[in-house]
Write a structure and sequence with these properties.
The chain is of the alpha/beta class. It is built from 38 helices and 61 strands. Strands 6-5-14-13-15-16-17-18-21 form a 9-stranded mixed sheet, with helices on both faces. It is elongated.
Length: 1417
C-alpha cells in the first residue's frame, strides 16, 4: 500500500519536473515587457494568490510543523516544487499553485467564507462618460512673501511678556466683559507678568514634594477655564510657558456625560496629564461627590485640580526667576482637535513655531504696538488663541474679549465695543455677523470707520460669503469699508493657512469665483454664471502666509500635485505649523510629514508639508480659495459633496424661519457600501406637522436639483435637543452617534431610500427549471442527488407491540382496561406541582363508557355525528375524547374561551363549532355557565349554540355495547388549528392514520408501559393533542400532564416535575421554553439548591410547526446546563396540517445537527453551506429525525418536479399517518385535492404525496443512523404562503424580523404580563429573536415592517432609519413602510406563531392604531 502511494508521488514529481522545464523554455522565449529591464528583479504581482491586504492567517495542519525558509535571489522569492527544486517565482506562480494543491487537502479557500464578496452582487456605479475631467497644466507650489525679521522682534514670546511687563506694566492687555456688556476686569501687562511668574513658581515648586515634584518642565498640564474668564486662562497659559510645562487648554466638563467630554478625557490620559489648572469660580461649579471631591469624569484620568487665583498661591522668593530662553523646538502647547468620528487629537506646537506664527500674523495683518482688538472667538484654540492671546502679547496690543454668554444676550455687543474702544481689528465668525444683522435695528450711534481689519475666522467656509456680503451691505453706511473684511483659513494642524491682507486701496475688489457645483463633485473647477442655482460662489481667503509654501494635492492616494483646474487638499510647508499629533506617530506621518510629488514622481521639496484638511485651489494672482473641508467630505456614488454646501442649500429653502440657522447638522452614514446623506435640524417650537413635511420635501427637491444627489434621511428634532459644543455649535459626531444608536428622538422623519439607493443588486431573472429529460437513471437531478429521505420502514421493524393487533384506539383502551386495569396512564399536576388528578386504564375506560351513554341518551347522537369538546387542559378532555370514540361520534377539541377575555376568544370557539358542524358541545359545568353568560351574549349569539352537555354530571350506567367502526379509513377525529397564515383549517384523521401515528411515535421514542413522559403542551391540535390524549393509551406509558397556563404562577413547575419524576423524555412548546429561559434565568442557583436535577433527560422536544428557533433552544440549553441538562438533549419536531408529525427527535439515532447556509443563496432557492461566522450566514437546526414509516421528497412548488439536495423546495410527505384531507376551508375544496394527493411531474410519478406548504431542504450528513445508514437531515426554512417574492427573490419574514429586532433596544422585549387574558402560549412571541417583536409582510410590492415599541413614544421615530438601514444592509431590500405600534398589537396564535396575514388585514383596514407610520420615499 505504502509502496503504491510512493510510486504515485514519484509519477507526480516527474510530471511536475517536465512541466517546469517546458514553462522555463516558454518563459525564456518571451521578450521582457516594455518598462521592465532585465536588471529589475522585483517580481510581478502573483495573481494566483490573494493580495496581502486580505491575507488571512491559516493555521497549518499538524505534521507540517518543520518549515524551511526559502532562500531569496534578488527580490524574487524562491519557491520549491514537491521535491525541493528551487523555482523562480516569476516563472512558476501557476506551477507552484499546482504543487500546493497536490500537497494540500481539498477545501474551499477561506476567502470564500470570510471576505464579503458583495462586489459581484451589488450594482457597481458606472462612471459618467460626460463627467468633467481636469485639463489644466500641473500646478506650481506657491510661495508666500519673505518673512521679514524686524530688529526689535523678541526672541521668544516669554521674552515679549517680560519686556512689556517690566517697561509698560500699566498698559492694558485684556479687558473682560460681564453679561451686561460692562467691563468686568482689566488685566495689565504688569499683572500678567507677575501673576504668570507666580503660577510658574507654584506649578514647579508647590505640587508634590521637593524630592518628587508632581510637575517637571516638559510635562503636560490641563487648562480648564470657562469661556467668560479669559484673564485667568491667559495668566495660566503664560505661567505654563514660563515654567516650561506644556499647557493643554480644554473645555470645562459641565456634567459627567458632556458631549465629547469623554474623548477629551482620553486625550488627557494619552498626554499623561495629572494636574488641571482652573479658576476658583470654575472649581466651585464642577460637579462634586457628597464628600466634596470632584468625581472622575467618564474616560478621564485621575487629576489634581489646582486653582490659579493669586490669593491661593505662594509668592515666589526674591531670588527665583523663570529661565527665559530663545524659542526652540520644545513643545509650547497642545491644541485639541475633534475629528469627524468624534475622537479628539492633540496637535503639538513647538516654541519656534509659536513665535514664527506670531511673526507671520503680525506681518500679514500689519499689527502695531498698542492697537486695540475685539475678540469674539474662543480664546482656547484656533484664531481666537492665535490673535487674542499670543500675537497680541508679542505686539503689546489691548484685547477686548466678548464672552459667548454676552453674545447670546446681545448679539450687537461686539459692534458696540468696536465703536466704544475705536478698535482697529475685530476677530469674528460669520455667525456673529449674521446675528448682528438680525439684531440690528437702525442703531444711530454705530460707527465702524476705526476698523482697518475685520478677521472672519471661518472665511474658509463657502457660505461665509453671504454673511460678509450682507454685513457689508448694511454697515457700509456706518463707516465699514469693503477692503476691511478679511476672511482667513486655518486648521489645527497648519495653524493660519492664508489670510486676506488689509489694504488701503478700496478700488481693488476682493477675489471671488462662481464655480459649477457639478464640476466640484468631480473635483474639477469650472467657472459658471451666477444666474444658475447649481453654482457655488466662493471668496478668496487671501494669500499664502509669509515664509510659507503652499500646494494642493489629490485628496486620496499618493500626494500628487493637482492640476490648475483641480480641487485638492491644501498643504503647507512652513516653520509656523503644528508638528505632530501627540503620541500618534502613524497619523503624524500621514499628516505632518507629507512629500508632494509631481506627475513624474519627483518630490516638490526636500522639506515636509503639512496637510491642512482644507479642500481648495490657488487661483489667479496667488489667491487661495477654499471650497470645503476633508472632514465634511461625503463621497456618494463616487461624487464628492461637502456637508457645508448641503447645509447652505437647506438653509436657503423657504420658509427660512422654519429651522434655526446654526442648528442644522449634515453627515453621511455608510449603508450598503456607499455613503448616504443625513440631515438633522432643530425645528421651531411653533411649527405644525404640515409645515414640517412641506419644508422637508422642498429641501429634498432643492438638494436634488442643485447638488444632483439624493438625501437618504431628513430628521427634524425639537428645539434645543441636539448635543452642543461649548460655544453653542452642534456637536456633529455626537449627533451622528445618537442617530446611529437610535437616541436622537426626532419629531419628524422623511426617508428616501428608494431614490438614494441605486446600487441594489439587479432583480433576479428566474431561470427555466430542468425538464424530465435531464433526470438520469437513478437518483440524480442535473448532477445532484435527488433530495429524498425516509424514516425506518415500519414493515421491517420487529417489536412485540401488542397494540398492533387492534385497528382502533378504542379497542386498545378496552384491552388495557382488562389486562392492566390499575396501571396509571395519566397524572395531572397543579401549579404547586402536586397531583391534581390521575387516571388508570380502567378508570378511563369506565368514564368513557358513561360519557358514551350520555351522548346517546341525552344528546341523542348517531354514530358519525361531530362533537365539540370544550375543556381546559386536563383529564376531562381525555375521557370525553374516548367517550366519543365509544359512542361512534367524531370529537373535535376546542380551546375554551378565556374568562377575562371573552370578547376576543369566544368568537373563535363559535367559529370552530360551526365550521366543524358539531351536533353537540361537551364541557364542564363552569365553562357551560360561561358560554351562556351575559358577557358571552355580548360577543356572540348564544342562542345559536348546539345542545351543550355538562360532563360533571354523568349517568351511572354502562352502554349496551361499545361502537366499533366498520372500516379503519373512517373518520376518528377532526383536528382544527389556525395556521401561521391565519387560516382556520380542520383536517380529517382516520382510525388507521391515528393508530399508525401512535405506533410511529412509540417506535421513535421507545415508549413502553414502564416509561414516564412529561408533557407541557396545549392539548388542542397537532402533535400536542396526540401526545396528551392518544399516545399513552396506545403505548401504555404514564403521561405526566402539566397545563402550560400553570407556569404563569410557577415558572419552575415543568422542570421541577421533570426532575421529581426522573423523566427521560419531555415535550414542551416554544412559549414554555421561553418562559423558563426568562423567568428562571437568574434562579438556577436556588433551583439547584432545591434539588432540581435534569441529568436524566434524554430528549426534550419542542413541538412546533415552523423553522426551529435556534437562538432560544441554545440559550435554554446553556442556561440549564448547570442543572445537569445535556446540551444535545434539546431538539425540535416538525409537523403541519397535512401530517401532524413528520420529524421528531427520538431516543436512538444521531444528535440534531446545525448547518450554516448562505442567506443570499437561499433567496435564490439554492442551498450553499458556509462556515460558521461567515458573512450572511444563517444557522439552521435539523427539525428532529424523520419518523418511522414517513417518506420525504423536496419538490419544486411551481413545476412539481423533484429537486436536488442543493435546492430549497417544498417538503412533500408520504406516510400512513397523513391526514386524509381538509374537513373544510370555507368551501375551498380545490385546495384539498392538491394538498393531500399530489404526484411529481416527472421521476417517480406513481407515489401519492401530501404537500406540507413548507420550504426546506435535505442534507446527507456524515452521521450514521441506528440502522447503520448515513443519516439524512431535514431542515425547515419557512412557510411557502408567508415567503415574500421581492426583486425576483424569495425572502422569509423571520430573517428580516430577526434583523429588525437587532436594530434598536426598544423593539419590544416581551414579558408574561404583556397581554392580559390571552392563553400563555398565545401570550409569548417569537423567541428565536430573543423575545422581541416585529412582523413583516408585503403590500402591493412594498415591504411593510411593523415594530412594537416598548419605550416612550418619543423613541418611535428613531426606529424608522434604523429599521430601514438594517434591512438594506442585510437583505438588500428597501423598506416601503415602517409602522410603529404599541406592545401587543401583532396577533399570534396558540403556538406563539405570528399571524402576519391578520396583521396585514388590520393594516389595510386601518385598524392598528399606530404610534407612527413612515412611508419611505
Amino acid at each position: 500500500m505504502v509502496g503504491a502511494r510512493q510510486h504515485e508521488l514519484e509519477l507526480v514529481d516527474l510530471k511536475i519536473k517536465k512541466l517546469l522545464s517546458e514553462v522555463k523554455d516558454f518563459c525564456s522565449d518571451i521578450r521582457t515587457p516594455r518598462g521592465l529591464s532585465n536588471e529589475n528583479h522585483s517580481a510581478p504581482p502573483d495573481v494566483t494568490t490573494y493580495t496581502s491586504e486580505h491575507s488571512i492567517q491559516v493555521e497549518r495542519p499538524q505534521g507540517s510543523t518543520t518549515s524551511r525558509t526559502a532562500p531569496k535571489y534578488g527580490n524574487a522569492e524562491l519557491m520549491e516544487t514537491g521535491d525541493g527544486v528551487p523555482v523562480s517565482s516569476r516563472v512558476s506562480a501557476k506551477i507552484q499553485q499546482l504543487v500546493n494543491t497536490l500537497k494540500r487537502p481539498k477545501r474551499p479557500p477561506l476567502r470564500e467564507f470570510f471576505v464579503d464578496d458583495f462586489e459581484e452582487l451589488l450594482e457597481v456605479q458606472q462612471p459618467d462618460p460626460n463627467q468633467p475631467k481636469p485639463e489644466g497644466a500641473q500646478m506650481l507650489a506657491m510661495r508666500g512673501e519673505q518673512l521679514g525679521v524686524v530688529t526689535n522682534w523678541p526672541p521668544s514670546l516669554e521674552a515679549a511678556l517680560q519686556r512689556w511687563g517690566t517697561i509698560s506694566p500699566k498698559a492694558p492687555c485684556l479687558t473682560t466683559m460681564d453679561t451686561n456688556g460692562k467691563p468686568l476686569y482689566i488685566l495689565t501687562y504688569g499683572k500678567l507678568w507677575t501673576r504668570s511668574m507666580k503660577v510658574a513658581y507654584n506649578i514647579l515648586h508647590k505640587l508634590g514634594t521637593k524630592q518628587e515634584p508632581m510637575v517637571r518642565p516638559g510635562d503636560r498640564v490641563a487648562l480648564v477655564f470657562p469661556n467668560n474668564d479669559p484673564a485667568a486662562s491667559m495668566v495660566a497659559f503664560y505661567g505654563c510657558l514660563l515654567a516650561e510645562v506644556v499647557p493643554v487648554p480644554i473645555e470645562v466638563p459641565l456634567t459627567r456625560k458632556d458631549a465629547g467630554s469623554q474623548q477629551i478625557g482620553f486625550l488627557l490620559g494619552s498626554c499623561g496629564v495629572t494636574v488641571a489648572l482652573t479658576s476658583d469660580a470654575c472649581h466651585k461649579g464642577l460637579p462634586k461627590s457628597p464628600t466634596g471631591e470632584i468625581p472622575q469624569f467618564k474616560g478621564w484620568p485621575k487629576l489634581l485640580w489646582f486653582v490659579t487665583e493669586s490669593k491661593h498661591l505662594s509668592k515666589p522668593p526674591r531670588d527665583w526667576f523663570p529661565h527665559i530662553k530663545d524659542a526652540n523646538n520644545d513643545t509650547a502647547y497642545i491644541e485639541y482637535k475633534t475629528c469627524k468620528d468624534g475622537s479628539v487629537l492633540g496637535v503639538t506646537v513647538t516654541r519656534v513655531a509659536l513665535l514664527t506664527h506670531c511673526q507671520a500674523l503680525t506681518q500679514a495683518c500689519g499689527y502695531t504696538e498698542a492697537e486695540t482688538i475685539v475678540n469674539v472667538l474662543d480664546f482656547k484654540k484656533d484664531v481666537g488663541l492665535w490673535h487674542g492671546i499670543l500675537t497680541s502679547v508679542m505686539n503689546m496690543m489691548h484685547v477686548i474679549s466678548i464672552p459667548y454668554s454676552l453674545m447670546k444676550v446681545n448679539p450687537l455687543s461686539w459692534i458696540q465695543k468696536v465703536c466704544q474702544y475705536k478698535a482697529k481689528v475685530a476677530c469674528v465668525k460669520s455667525r456673529d455677523m449674521h446675528w448682528a444683522l438680525v439684531a440690528h435695528r437702525d442703531q444711530r450711534d454705530i460707527n465702524l470707520s476705526s476698523l482697518r481689519m475685520l478677521i472672519v475666522a471661518d472665511g474658509a467656509n463657502p457660505w461665509s460669503i453671504s454673511s460678509c456680503d450682507a454685513f457689508l451691505n448694511v454697515f457700509q453706511s456706518k463707516g465699514l469699508r469693503q477692503e476691511v473684511i478679511c476672511p482667513c483659513a486655518s486648521s489645527p494642524e497648519a495653524l493660519t493657512v492664508a489670510i486676506r491682507r488689509p489694504t488701503d486701496d478700496s478700488n481693488q475688489p476682493p477675489g471671488r469665483g462662481v464655480l459649477s457645483m457639478h464640476g466640484l463633485t468631480y473635483g474639477v473647477i469650472r467657472v459658471d454664471s451666477e444666474e444658475k442655482l447649481s453654482v457655488l460662489t466662493v471668496q478668496d481667503v487671501g494669500l499664502v502666509m509669509p515664509g510659507a509654501i503652499m500646494c494642493s494635492v489629490r485628496p486620496d492616494g499618493l500626494p500628487q500635485l493637482c492640476r490648475t483646474d483641480e480641487v485638492g487638499e491644501l498643504c503647507v510647508c512652513a516653520v509656523a505649523t503644528g508638528t505632530s499629533y501627540y503620541g500618534l506617530s502613524g497619523m503624524t506621518k500621514n499628516t505632518f510629514e507629507v512629500f508632494p510629488v509631481t506627475s513624474s514622481g519627483a518630490p516638490v521639496s526636500e522639506y515636509p508639508f503639512v496637510r491642512t484638511g482644507l479642500l481648495g485651489f490657488i487661483g489667479p494672482g496667488g489667491l487661495v480659495f477654499v471650497v470645503g473641508k476633508m472632514d465634511g467630505l461625503m463621497v456618494v456614488s463616487g461624487r464628492r459633496h461637502n456637508a457645508d454646501d448641503i447645509v447652505a442649500t437647506a438653509l436657503a429653502v423657504e420658509p427660512m424661519k422654519f429651522v434655526y440657522r446654526g442648528r442644522i447638522a449634515v453627515f453621511s452614514v455608510t449603508v450598503l457600501h456607499d455613503e448616504r446623506i443625513v440631515i438633522v435640524a432643530e425645528q421651531r417650537p411653533d411649527s405644525t406637522e404640515e409645515d414640517s413635511f412641506q419644508w422637508m420635501s422642498r429641501v429634498l427637491q432643492a438638494i436634488d436639483s442643485i447638488h444632483q444627489v439624493g438625501v437618504y434621511c431628513l430628521a427634524l428634532v425639537p428645539a434645543n435637543t441636539l448635543p452642543k459644543t461649548p460655544l453653542g455649535g452642534i456637536h456633529l459626531s455626537e449627533t451622528k452617534q445618537l442617530f446611529l444608536e437610535g437616541a436622537l428622538h426626532p419629531c419628524n422623519v422623511l426617508m428616501c431610500p428608494h431614490t438614494c439607493v441605486t446600487n441594489l443588486p439587479k432583480p433576479r431573472q428566474k431561470q427555466p427549471e430542468i425538464g424530465p429529460a435531464s433526470v438520469m437513471v437513478g437518483n440524480l437531478v442535473s448532477g445532484k442527488r435527488i433530495a429524498q429521505a425516509s424514516g425506518r420502514d415500519l414493515g421491517q421493524i420487529e417489536d412485540n407491540d401488542q397494540a398492533r393487533k387492534f385497528l382502533f384506539l378504542s379497542e386498545v383502551l378496552q384491552w388495557r382496561a382488562q389486562t392492566t386495569p390499575d396501571h396509571v396512564l395519566y397524572t395531572l399536576l397543579n401549579c404547586r406541582g402536586t397531583i391534581a388528578n390521575s387516571l388508570t386504564c380502567v378508570q378511563l375506560h369506565k368514564r368513557a363508557e358513561k360519557i358514551a351513554v350520555m351522548l346517546m341518551e341525552r344528546g341523542h347522537l348517531q354514530d358519525g355525528d361531530h362533537v365539540a369538546l370544550v375543556y381546559p387542559p386536563g383529564i376531562d378532555l381525555i375521557a370525553a375524547f374516548y367517550g366519543c370514540l365509544y359512542a361512534g361520534c367524531v370529537p373535535i377539541t376546542v380551546r375554551p374561551p378565556h374568562p377575562q377575555n371573552i370578547a376576543t376568544t369566544l368568537p373563535t370557539v363559535k367559529m370552530i363549532v360551526e365550521v366543524s358542524r358539531s351536533a353537540c358541545l361537551m364541557t364542564t359545568q363552569l365553562i357551560c355557565k360561561l358560554l351562556r353568560s351575559r358577557e358571552a351574549a355580548a360577543a356572540v349569539d348564544v342562542r345559536a349554540w348546539p345542545p351543550i352537555l355538562d360532563t360533571d354530571d354523568l349517568p351511572k350506567k354502562r352502554p349496551a355495547q361499545i361502537y366499533k367502526p366498520s372500516n379503519p379509513d373512517t373518520l376518528a377525529y377532526l383536528d382544527f388549528s389556525v395556521s401561521t397564515t391565519g387560516m382556520l383549517a380542520g383536517v380529517k384523521m382516520s382510525h388507521a392514520a391515528t393508530s399508525a401515528f401512535c405506533r410511529s411515535i412509540k417506535l421513535q421514542c421507545e415508549l413502553y408501559p414502564s416509561r414516564e413522559v412529561a408533557i407541557c403542551l396545549d392539548p388542542y391540535c397537532g402533535l400536542g393533542f396526540v401526545l396528551w390524549c392518544l399516545c399513552s393509551v396506545y403505548s401504555g406509558h404514564q403521561s405526566i400532564l402539566i397545563p402550560p397556563a400553570e407556569l404563569e404562577t410557577n415558572p419552575a413547575l415543568w422542570l421541577l416535575a421533570v426532575s421529581q419524576y426522573k423523566v427521560r423524555d419531555t415535550f414542551c412548546s416554544y412559549s414554555v421554553m421561553e418562559l423558563c429561559t426568562k423567568g428562571l434565568g437568574s434562579q438556577t442557583e436556588s433551583l439547584k439548591a432545591r434539588g432540581l436535577d435534569l441529568s436524566r433527560v434524554r430528549t426534550c422536544v419542542v413541538v412546533a410547526e415552523e423553522r426551529p428557533r435556534i437562538a432560544l433552544t441554545q440559550s435554554f440549553s446553556k442556561l440549564f446546563k448547570d442543572l445537569g441538562l445535556h446540551p444535545r438533549a434539546v431538539s425540535t419536531s416538525f409537523g403541519c396540517r397535512v401530517n401532524l408529525a413528520i420529524c421528531l427527535q427520538g431516543t436512538s439515532g444521531p444528535d440534531p445537527t446545525t448547518v450554516y447556509v448562505d442567506m443570499r443563496a437561499l433567496r435564490h432557492d439554492r442551498v450553499r453551506l458556509v462556515e460558521r461566522g461567515s458573512p450572511h450566514s444563517l444557522p439552521l437546526m435539523e427539525s428532529g429525525k424523520i419518523l418511522p414509516g414517513v417518506r420525504i421528497i423536496i419538490a419544486n412548488p411551481e413545476t412539481k418536479g423533484p429537486l436536488g439536495d442543493s435546492h430549497l423546495g417544498e417538503i412533500w410527505v408520504h406516510s400512513a399517518h397523513n391526514a386524509s384531507g381538509y374537513f373544510t376551508i370555507y368551501g375551498d375544496e380545490s385546495l384539498q385535492s392538491d394538498h393531500f394527493n399530489s404526484r411529481l411531474s416527472f421521476g417517480d410519478t406513481q407515489t401519492v404525496w401530501a404537500r406540507t406548504g413548507y420550504l426546506g431542504f435535505l442534507r446527507r450528513t456524515e452521521l450514521t443512523d441506528a440502522n447503520g445508514e448515513r443519516h439524512d437531515a431535514l431542515y425547515v426554512v419557512g412557510a411557502l404562503d408567508e415567503a415574500m417574492e421581492l426583486r425576483g427573490m424569495r425572502y422569509h419574514p423571520i430573517d428580516i424580523e430577526t434583523s429588525v429586532i437587532r436594530a434598536h433596544k426598544s423593539v419590544t422585549e416581551w414579558n408574561q404580563s404583556t397581554r392580559l387574558g390571552l392563553q400563555l402560549a398565545a401570550e409569548l412571541s417569537d423567541p428565536s429573536v430573543s423575545g422581541a417583536h416585529s412582523a413583516v409582510f408585503t403590500w402591493t410590492n412594498l415591504l411593510v415592517v411593523v415594530v412594537e415599541l416598548d419605550g416612550s413614544e418619543q423613541e418611535a421615530l428613531d426606529l424608522v432609519p434604523l429599521v430601514t438601514n438594517v434591512v438594506l444592509e442585510e437583505h438588500y431590500l428597501v423598506v416601503g413602510v415602517v409602522v410603529v405600534v404599541d406592545v401587543g398589537v401583532i396577533p399570534i396564535n396558540s403556538r406563539g406563531e405570528k399571524q402576519r396575514m391578520h396583521l396585514r388585514d388590520g393594516f389595510l383596514a386601518d385598524q392598528l392604531d399606530p404610534i407612527y407610520v413612515a412611508y419611505n420615499m
